[in-house]
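Field reference: "sequence" (input) and "structure" (output). Example, HTH-type transcriptional regulator:
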Amino acid sequence: MIMTEKIESFVMHCGEMGSRWGFNRTVGQMYGLLIISQEPLSAVEIGETLNISRGNISMGIKELQSWRLVQVSHKPKDRKEYYSPAGSIWEMAIRVFEERRKREVDPTMSLLRDNLMDEPGNEQERYAQEKMGEIHDLLEAVTSWAGELQDMNPDKLNTLMKLGAGVSKVIDMKDRILQNN
């Protein structure tokens, strides 16, 4: 694949964003390249395009597979494996959110639940448990909401996101109506 200035800019940016998504720069670059490639790419094509070693490509593909972000395909009479994004951009976003929840939120929720089950030993621990309870409740609400969003089809998600602050205005209007009654 030939990297134009625009394509290279996007791929490099995906590398920088990779660390924010939960994987390293090279894996982010690989995924960015796969997202914008019209055809599936072989490991050799990925390596030549990004100028990275076969070993890094192999490890990167395994990482992307563990996140369920790539799919493998084969071409007739060709022994090479070809890689492409697994699903739509919406499905990719949902998978990244889901994997981040498993890797970051779930262990935090587990720790909070364990700490909240213990009796506080003193006033300082009681206060700390109150704050941990607030964090737990917030994470539980966000996790529940995110789960509901994951079950929506992309068209409904897109409509919901376009509503944006409009949803807040409807809630404010409902509150005013209830206060006047």
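The chain has eight helices and three strands.
The chain has two domains: 5-85, 89-160.
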